[in-house]
Design goal:
The protein has 419 residues and is an alpha+beta fold. Among the domains are: 1-36; 119-186; 282-413, L,D-transpeptidase catalytic domain-like. The protein has 4 helices and 24 strands. Strands 2, 5, 6, 7, 8, 20, 21, 22 and 23 form a 9-stranded mixed beta sheet that branches. It is elongated and about 100 Å long. Keywords: Cell shape, Cell wall biogenesis/degradation, Lipoprotein, Peptidoglycan synthesis, Transferase. It comes from Flexilinea flocculi. This is Lipoprotein-anchoring transpeptidase ErfK/SrfK. Pathway: Cell wall biogenesis; peptidoglycan biosynthesis.
């Protein structure tokens, strides 16, 4: 009997030692998991979990009433029967920012590429800015360079909409819609559309990559590069966190993935309109981010990159209303005293005037969006301008603002504006 008791006691002691060793090993493994950095290539499929408005989250502390470690999962409240540590804590911390693992797709619609189709052909005048362009009554005169009947002033950007084209050994010649013949190079029109549509307001902010790059691991230029991920220009990504750094604003777009303001443009939407706007339908333009956002029934339905007025031809901040819509418009003008910034643009598509000569419109001569380039108008890709043209009505409100405060707000600063 005594031998049996000794044997039974030995079994209990051995079991206790095995359990202690297992718990110690599990604790060490958990610590390693917490401190480990994810490795390997990452495919971007962002999550749609949390609101862009931050909310207080409960702090999960080790449960003193339990020795158990929770299974890997998200624990928004203390489970009490286990300790949400290790993988559980890691997943829960990600979820607080809206990041899921594995990640979920960012839900946004693309507009129909057919919206980029226009019934116009464009040609660019590839000559020195200061050079005037002779216009001719016939192709023969244009090819020979004789008998010009009119001249087009020198300028920085000059395009014509043409009806006929002849390619000769000595160059390309087009007949403009006004009937003149001139030497010009037929221009390719971009069918790229940057806008995104939404059936309901997204669960978090989002934005566009302005220039292709590998993201940073931390919101710090010295925080290391995440070489497992690369984003291309114009990729659309969710924003899970925003950090104001010493030299720039940082946007978290994924796990260990941060982009700086130089390389990213964010759609920081707000479905509550300014007091001056009556009703739930308006257009917002964020001049700092170079993003246009459209709201219908107090919900975000569309957003796109734009190009607004460059210094000193800023787009005027304020609240305006669309007062005229035109399928196409010829635009010309200059603002410098020496007329060196003269521009001439035929058949500018989908024009919507909202502030004197300032308008939303398609810009077939632009290749990039996301930074200031115009004389005050809001330039968009043709397809994006077409979408807005179809949605907008005369009388719709336009709210234009610059959160950075860099754009002058005194109305006395502004003239008529232009393309």
């Amino acid at each position: 009997m005594k031998d049996f008791k000794n044997f039974f006691t030995s079994i209990i002691l051995c079991g206790f030692m095995i359990l202690t060793t297992f718990k110690s090993g599990l604790s060490q493994e958990t610590t390693q998991i917490i401190n480990a950095e994810p490795t390997g290539a990452v495919q971007h499929t962002p999550s749609v979990v949390v609101s862009p408005t931050a909310s207080a989250e409960p702090t999960l502390n080790p449960n003193n009433n339990s020795d158990a470690i929770c299974f890997p999962d998200v624990y928004p409240i203390d489970p009490e029967i286990c300790n949400p540590l290790g993988p559980a804590q890691y997943l829960t911390d990600l979820a607080k920012k809206g990041l899921s693992y594995p990640s979920l797709p960012f839900i946004a619609g693309k507009i129909d590429e057919d919206l980029s189709n226009v019934p116009y052909q464009y040609a660019k005048l590839n000559v020195e800015n200061a050079e005037v362009i002779p216009l001719y009554a016939t192709y023969e005169d244009a090819a020979a360079g004789t008998n010009p009947i009119e001249y087009l002033a020198g300028g920085t950007i000059r395009y014509v909409s043409f009806q006929n084209r002849i390619d000769a050994d000595n160059g390309h010649f087009v007949q403009s819609k006004k009937g003149f013949w001139l030497r010009a190079s037929p221009a390719a029109v971009s069918y790229t559309t940057l806008g995104r549509t939404f059936k309901t307001t997204p669960a978090q902010y989002f934005g566009w990559v302005f220039e292709g790059l590998n993201p940073y691991i931390k919101p710090d230029f010295n925080g290391g590069i995440n070489t497992a991920v690369y984003y291309n220009r114009e990729d659309v990504l969710p924003v899970f966190d925003i950090v104001e750094g010493k030299d720039t604003t940082w946007y978290q777009v994924g796990e260990n993935q941060w982009l700086d303001r130089i390389h990213f443009r964010a759609a920081l939407f707000n479905t509550t309109p300014p007091e001056e706007i009556k009703g739930g339908r308006w257009i917002e333009v964020d001049l700092y981010q170079q993003v246009l956002m459209v709201y219908d029934n107090y919900s975000l339905v569309y957003a796109a990159l734009i190009a607004s007025g460059m210094k000193p031809f800023y787009t005027q901040p304020g609240i305006f209303q669309i007062y005229e819509k035109k399928e196409s418009e010829d635009m010309t003008g200059s603002f410098e005293a020496d007329k060196s910034d003269y521009y001439y643009l035929e058949d500018v598509p989908f024009t919507m005037y909202f502030d004197q000569a300032r308008a939303f419109h398609g810009a077939y001569w632009r290749a990039w969006y996301g930074y200031e380039q115009s004389h005050g108008c809001i330039n968009m890709s043709i397809g994006d301008a077409h979408w807005l043209f179809n949605w907008a009505k005369v009388g719709d409100y336009t709210y234009i603002h610059d959160p950075s405060g860099n754009t002058p707000t005194d109305p006395a600063y502004y003239g008529q504006g232009g393309a």
